[in-house]
Fold:
Amino acid sequence: MEQLSYRTLEQRNFQGYLLRHAPERVLQFGEGNFLRAFVEEFIDVMNERAGFDGKVVLVQPIAPGLEPVISRQEGLYTLLLRGREEGRPVSQRRVISCVSRCINPYEDYRTLLDCAKIPELRFLVSNTTEAGIVFDPVCRFDDEPSASFPGKLTRFLYERYRLGGKGFIILPCELIDRNGDMLRRCVERYISHWELDTGFSQWVARENVFCSTLVDRIVTGYPRVEAETICAELGYEDSLLDAGELFGLWVIEGPQSIKEELPFEQAGLPIIVTDDLTPYQRRKVRVLNGAHTAMSLGAYLIGHDMVRSCMENSTIRGFMGKAVYQEIIPTLDLPGEELNRFAASVIERFQNPYIDHRLLDISLNSTAKWRARIMPSLLEFAARTGTLPTCLIFSFAEYLSFYHGGRVRGEGCLIGRRGEDRYQVKDDPWVLDFYYDHRDDRPAALVHAVVSNERMWGLELSALPGFEAAVTRILERIAAMGMYRAMQECL
Structure:
């Protein structure tokens, strides 16, 4: 088969949307699976539906990358978005044509700086992993390029300033809280560290908008197992195949004027521009991530391995639904209808037949996850209602059962048993030490030791009236009748 290219598509009389030529309006640091299945899809749809008429220049954030393949395919690739809608499996394919080129700044640094000359260039996007937005004092202004992403960005902004160009709307997509604020502070530190002129510092502050963002889409990337079959169906070889779920959400904290330049709404895209990201961040962590954490450890001990199979079990699904709708949503301040829609989308995402989401993967570092995802809902529910939420308390008992089952030391883990199967409990070393030291505790002693551990929770959960007794009672029920029947009692 021929490699994907514009010529290949023309020869096959391709009937889908293609944009071969347009001004380069977006510079994107990162060329990986996530951005290509998220930002590029949104831009491609804006081109088709709302006349955005923009191309994206990709920049490799590290020396080895996809530039040779992207260049060979002229920026084209096929995106598969798959999931469930209204209870039915749905699979969509789209050839993405909004990428103009990819730059490897480690081989061609001047070409990156020359992008500052493009008058239509207005948006800077990034996803350089959670470790990407850091200040590295070793980086110098005249590095070609700087090792750190904020260093590269500062140098690029300086080139734009030197040329008298317009500033940018900067949209980092790294999975970091307040990513825009963090990136702006790094740039400011480089300006000071490199002793750049005051005029540049003022230009950065005046002409550029650093937006904190929240991104939400599961991207599974290159579908290796299916790639040969998919390419045979397409009729061309695509080395950049990318796959993700149907659901997507991009929340941008910034001025409403952004919508005048990025026609999200006209294109009907799930993108929200707000002056406060916090309620949406809280909604994602408490509803989506909280639902995972609330049911995953108990579901694993019951005998399930994948999130998808849990949703086929009426007890587990009913437990998760009760936790979300009756105990988590009442602690949030967004409109109820909006929260219910989001919760319904979460349940459909958990049923996605195209994604294998392993419960043991979710179990990693569950101490910190329970603290960040569940504990705020628990405390807020208690404060608002004066009562304790049954399912969220049960989730704590699940966590204890899973960790307390790790009776044997392993390499960087504790080893527990589920019937004939063994599983690994993975967490910070001091957490594993704590549970190993308490491996022989009876339920009451174990619960008391854990809820009194301020290092784990940032406070003593034993101070929450009735919490310790309720967890102890559930843990004893789990020991007496098993996880499944104890979970049924919550419903």
